[in-house]
DNA sequence: AAAAAGATTAACGAAAAGTTAATAACCTTA
DNA sequence: TAAGGTTATTAACTTTTCGTTAATCTTTTT
């Protein structure tokens, strides 16, 4: 879950936003004091800051400057009543990732935050889960390869790989001819069905080392990819 | 420099924005047709899309949906005259990173783009390497050299070096023709694909001493730079 | 037992990929 | 600006790959 720090000195708005964001399942911390923010950042890690520009003691810009120096990677959004263009430009020049003008629409704020955090999270995890364990085999659909026990690797053709993926997604269920043909070949006709048989045959051969795996034919219906665990 | 694709059917606004953004040193391409956008994205790589929501033929939302499916990582901004709240929410739900209401303030657009690209760039290339161990080889992209076991050194051409770096960054993953061509050659067409083959051939020869390294072709898709450790 | 469906292997042709050589573009330096 | 060298692209040709089709045999159904 994502931790957000909201810095807003207006009690009404601060309360409204913090309750709303909590309701939307953000882990939210609301404070109304700039110096407290710095103390808190020292102790806890936040994924996002939401800063009001107009603040007593220290205004949002100077605070942002300080934060930028201390924690250059943490993203922050400005909230402001001043919709002066020069302020918007100034906000971004300070490194803001967004700048919202009051009155704040809570729903819009939420979707903007979500869009932002989604981007941050995908940037973090380039990991494409692309390893599928099938018995003694490991199937990597993205690179169209099938590895047997670290022993050897079989390169699959596109059709073979698509078909295996389809079967795996429907493992231990009936995968009908029609489903397979329409999704992989695009058309369900006599000749493509012949092709399908050829590819089933290929896959059976590739997977023959593990007796817990089988591709069984269901007469006149389709195939059953059986994987015992 | 960052490449931006602007899709805006209003000639006056399209012209204004494209000129303004060019002046601000963006590499900008302006088109007014949704289908043209899809064709262009197939051939060229863009860092950011700016889409008008209201378009003839295909509206921005459906286009965004298509783009999202085909190129899930490319960020886009919506531009719109409809400031209906439901549209803003819809825009973000489609994966937009920002949503600007007309009339567009060009200066604000520029700073928002800059903020966005700045974040993308730091996330993308966190490090620049000057020594990369690849099996028995040591690759030095900055000096475009490839050393085999302190034994001998191969001087690489710029293309060879760029390609090897790209492959290394995508090692053990599928590097599609399109990705390679759009990032290194800038354009994805028949002839550049031919060139790519030539360079792949060069690299294979250079790297042939270490049997744990291979560049495998994935038919009709791209290449797989395999490095076993 | 006949007919239909499925399995397996092989053959084929089109398209893609690999390789080497030739040409064109691009620098540098005189 | 011309020469020479380097690099990238294009061309020409060969090899490989892949999906379909065909041929043959086996299994299932009625």
Give a written overview of the molecule.
The structure is a homodimer of 229-residue chains. In chain A, helix 6 packs across helix 8. Chain A is α/β, with parallel strands linked by helices. Chain A has 8 helices and 12 strands. In chain A, the strands form 3 sheets. A 5-stranded parallel sheet of chain A has the order 2-1-3-4-5, with helices on both faces. Chain A has a 4-stranded antiparallel sheet with strand order 6-7-8-9, with no helix packed on it. About 3% of the residues of chain A have low confidence. In chain A, a hairpin with a 3-residue loop joins strand 11 and strand 12. Chain A has 2 domains: 121 residues, Response regulator (Rossmann fold), CATH 3.40.50; 96 residues, Orthogonal Bundle (Arc Repressor Mutant, subunit A). Chains A and B meet through helix 4 and helix 5 of A and helix 4 and helix 5 of B. The structure holds a DNA duplex (30 and 30 nucleotides).
Structural class assignment of chain A: alpha/beta
| Low-pLDDT ranges of chain A | 124-129
The most extensive interface, with participating residues per chain, is: A-B, 29 and 31 residues
CATH topology value of the largest domain in chain A: Rossmann fold
Q: How much is the average pLDDT of chain A?
A: 90
Helix amount of chain A, in percent? 40-55%
Number of helices of chain A: 8
């Amino acid at each position: 879950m994502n931790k957000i720090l909201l810095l807003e000195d207006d009690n009404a708005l601060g309360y409204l936003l913090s309750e709303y964001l909590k309701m939307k399942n953000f882990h939210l911390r609301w404070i109304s004091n700039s110096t407290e923010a710095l103390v808190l950042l020292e102790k806890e890690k936040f994924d996002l800051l939401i800063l009001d520009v107009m603040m007593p003691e220290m205004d949002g810009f100077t605070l942002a400057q300080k934060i930028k120096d201390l924690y250059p990677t943490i993203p922050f959004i400005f909230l402001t009543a001043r919709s002066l263009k020069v302020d918007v430009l100034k906000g971004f020049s300070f490194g803001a990732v967004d700048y919202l003008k009051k009155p704040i629409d809570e729903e819009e704020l939420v979707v903007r935050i979500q869009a932002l955090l989604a981007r941050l999270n995908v940037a973090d995890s380039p990991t494409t889960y692309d390893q599928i364990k099938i018995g003694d085999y490991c199937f990597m659909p993205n690179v169209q390869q099938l590895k047997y026990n670290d022993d050897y690797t079989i390169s699959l053709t596109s059709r073979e790989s698509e078909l295996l993926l389809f079967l795996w997604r429907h493992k231990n269920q009936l995968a009908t001819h029609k489903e397979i043909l329409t999704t992989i070949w695009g058309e369900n006709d006599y000749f493509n069905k012949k092709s399908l048989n050829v590819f089933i045959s290929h896959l059976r051969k590739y997977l023959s080392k593990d007796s817990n795996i089988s591709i069984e034919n269901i007469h006149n219906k389709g195939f059953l990819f059986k994987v015992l665990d």
